[in-house]
Amino acid sequence: MKKISVLFFALLISSSAFSQSVLNLLGKSQDFFKLMSEEKYNEAYGFFDASFQAKVPEANLKEIWLKIGEKLGKYESGSVVSSKSEGEYFTVVVEVAFTNDVQPFLLAFNKSEKMVGFFLRPKATEAAYLPPAYSDTTLYKETEIHVKSGKHSLVGLLTEPKKGTNYPIVVLVHGSGPNDMDATYGPNKPLKDIALGLASKGVASIRYVKRTMLYPVEFNGAFTVKEEVMDDALAAVALARTLPKADKKQIYVLGHSLGGMLAPRFPLLAPDLKGIIMVAAPARKLSDMIIEQNKYLFALSNDTTQAVKQQLDTVLKEYSKGYISKLTPPMKADSLLAGLPASYWIDLNVNNQVAAAKKIVKQRVYIAQGDNDYQVTTTDFNLWKAALGAKKNVTLKLYPQMNHMLSIQPAKSTPQEYQVHASVAEILVTDISNWIKAK
């Protein structure tokens, strides 16, 4: 849950589909600049589709590159810094280092993996993503995978140790809303940090682009978390069972935020799981938490104008209505309540996460919560502790100063923090790794 504004839980804001081979496009982006630097203009020109070539002759491409060289110097290297779906296209930002300066470029690809655009991009003023200090590229490797669930194919990455076999493997499950495989927010990529950190410590993971990002049009009517989260996470667990180097007796699910809230459902659906890891997992009704979040943001803004007060009142009235927290059938499934179908609210109300967690006996459970998290707070942690603290298969830990993005922050969390790069707390990654290995 991380849409930061009043009317906070604006779930499933549309982001158009693009299910092409992401790693292939990232590689092509770097190859393009290498060919240009080697003056192999004809080969580089072949990366573009026919419509671009009809408008821009090959000679123009060469001329543009030479002018860039006159200003910035000789090409030295290029690295991909971001990528995302943009309607019918997939865009890749490559930061190219020249002898005199560094210049970002944006490349646009169509669904045939042909380039349809090549632009100089203004230098970013915001912070950029940096791999966590505890990740060691000499210790892990990443391989593209596809999580297939019914007619859906979700591109993802298997991050695994370079050496050894029979390693534990964790399926990483996102929070709410459309998410890429890294759960990117601004310069932060919490699922990527966790994957790199765990692999550096000998634990593999699977992460994948969320269905709501690749197939948004499917979420215009009635749906539940089954379609949004559960089916694809279970498909990723099934994929983990097929990996030759993974220990089939050491498969875990790690859910963040909404993913953590749903994690207690997985042991019933995949009884061979070794355990679940719930990070920043809500223990309360979703509507109650949304009310709390909006009140906090309103107080934080110090904006007491009538317009803002009215906006908050509208949100509180919408979510405070008793029928949302008590909603049950036979209400029409696709009736919209606070921006979500009745089917969604009914599913969350019927399937109580605390009650489900109490029934877990065979699997191990790890619950982690940051005390600077304003989205999922210590109130939730205390509810988990009260319900599960006496169970021998459950480990609970409260992390001082950790926020919802799982980084360490010195003061109570604010939305502005999410725009500043900060890696997932090393202690959290270390604790999860040690807990998994303890078996």
Descriptive report:
With 439 residues, the chain is of the alpha/beta class. It has two domains: 22-120, Roll (Nuclear Transport Factor 2, Chain: A); 140-280 and 352-438, Rossmann fold. It is built from 16 helices and 14 strands. It has helices at 22-37, 41-45, 50-55, 58-72, 190-200, 211-214, 225-242, 258-262, 266-269, 286-301, 306-320, 322-326, 342-350, 353-358, 378-388, 426-438, and strands at 75-86, 89-98, 102-109, 115-120, 140-149, 152-161, 167-173, 204-208, 246-256, 275-279, 336-337, 340-341, 364-370, 394-399. The strands form three sheets. The protein has an eight-stranded mixed β-sheet, sandwiched between helices. Strand 11 and strand 12 form a beta hairpin. Helix 10 packs antiparallel against helix 11 (306-320). The longest helix is centred in the middle third of the chain and has 18 residues, at 225-242. The protein is globular, with a radius of gyration of 23 Å. The model is unreliable at 1-20 (pLDDT under 50).
